[in-house]
């Protein structure tokens, strides 16, 4: 997702926060 590896949960959380922040 978004070119990031889904193996790192911390990375997914950061992406999730960024996604909501954009919205």
UniProtKB/TrEMBL annotation:
This is Uncharacterized protein. It comes from Heterorhabditis bacteriophora. The lineage of its organism: Eukaryota, Metazoa, Ecdysozoa, Nematoda, Chromadorea.
